[in-house]
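Students often ask why inverse folding is considered easier than folding. One informal answer: many sequences map to the same fold, so there is more than one right answer. In these notes we will look at a single instance of the problem. The structure comes first.
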């Protein structure tokens, strides 16, 4: 029973770091001696320092002969920091309880083997399913080369996101909008399509107390670089990063002075502070699988997609949606309103993307939030 209690504490620490540790996973570590927790640690901002080294620094001499509960297998390779497995050995830890193994080819069992070779008692698999839920984004990037993609839909009961005239603010109430802010805080990045960026001029920042220390990356899928330099996303990009996904067939930009070459739209946006990422063209403007691979290469592990209907449909058609968070308001807009997802062109039910609920519906004021996984 005590092992479960201490591992749950380690998992709670790991969950607190979601959205702040990429490209590294968020890991929790609890060091226990004589049945008492003497130190706790979790992965620091941008992935450094690691949870184990944080906890060992707090524990000091109390680590000798103690048990370490870690949500992810300690690393065994030299990167920006020495291996955590070596740090546990050097500190005199007698027993290590690990929830989930690390599929990173640089680790993948080598951390556990190094601990055992040093005479440390190692147990693996305690609360593994719970740990893997927190680590899902990291695991997706390691195994598939791309971030975990969560599609957030805020709709009426009939799946509409705006009136036929385009009015959309606000379908859901204040409690649901606060929940969306919390979702942003648990993701590395929030993504919208160019249509949403142009129509709404959103800030896409996380406006929760304490979240300013870890600004979410704002991503716009904008195949032709139509995002205005005066938009909130570009204007604030020196404070909160803005990444623009585009392909090279873009407008040239303003007319040049005589004898000068016109700057490209990518150059103009980059000069304003945005980061422009070129990907191949695809059927929906940009090649979305290639775009997600590019984001994974840059270290992102968890992306929250907030709109719009065209981007949602394109991601579903490309089989890139891993999870859906659906917030529905108790209201109806009718068939002439804007749907949450544009046409998927399915000719049989067998081709539907199917999801299953992973949580009980959460009542948020008058609205209800449900989470689904593929």
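Output (designed amino acids):
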């Amino acid at each position: 029973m005590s092992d479960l209690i201490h591992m749950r504490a380690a998992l709670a620490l790991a969950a607190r770091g979601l959205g702040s540790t990429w490209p590294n996973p968020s890991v929790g570590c609890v060091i226990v001696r004589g049945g008492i927790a003497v130190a706790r640690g979790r992965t620091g901002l941008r992935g450094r320092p690691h949870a184990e080294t944080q906890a060992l620094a707090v524990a000091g001499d109390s680590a000798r002969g103690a048990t370490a509960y870690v949500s992810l297998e300690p690393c065994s390779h030299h990167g920006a920091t020495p291996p955590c497995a070596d740090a546990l050995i050097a500190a005199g830890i007698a027993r290590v309880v690990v929830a989930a193994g690390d599929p990173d080819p640089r680790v993948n069992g080598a951390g556990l083997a190094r601990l055992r070779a040093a005479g440390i008692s190692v147990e693996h698999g305690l609360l593994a399913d719970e740990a893997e839920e927190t680590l899902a984004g990291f695991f997706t990037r390691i195994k598939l080369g791309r971030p975990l993609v969560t599609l957030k839909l805020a709709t009426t009961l009939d799946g509409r996101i705006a009136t036929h005239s385009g009015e959309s603010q606000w379908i859901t109430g204040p409690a649901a909008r606060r929940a969306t802010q919390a979702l942003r805080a648990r993701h590395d990045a929030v993504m919208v399509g160019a249509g949403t960026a142009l129509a709404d001029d959103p800030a896409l920042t996380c406006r929760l107390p304490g979240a300013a220390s870890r600004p979410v990356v704002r991503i716009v899928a904008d195949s032709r670089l139509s995002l205005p330099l005066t938009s909130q996303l570009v204007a604030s990009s020196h404070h909160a990063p803005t990444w623009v996904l585009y392909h090279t067939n873009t407008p040239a930009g303003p007319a040049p002075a005589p004898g000068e070459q016109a700057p490209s739209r990518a150059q103009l946006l980059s000069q304003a502070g945005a980061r422009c990422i070129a990907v191949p063209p695809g059927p929906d403007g940009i090649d979305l699988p290639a775009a997600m691979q590019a984001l994974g290469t840059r270290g992102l592990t968890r992306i929250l997609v907030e709109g719009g209907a065209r981007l949602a449909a394109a991601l579903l058609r490309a089989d890139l949606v891993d999870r859906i968070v659906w917030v529905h308001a108790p209201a109806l807009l009718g068939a002439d309103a804007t749907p949450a997802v544009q046409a998927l062109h399915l000719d049989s039910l067998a081709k539907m993307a199917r999801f299953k609920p992973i949580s009980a519906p959460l009542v948020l004021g008058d609205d209800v939030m449900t989470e689904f996984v593929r």
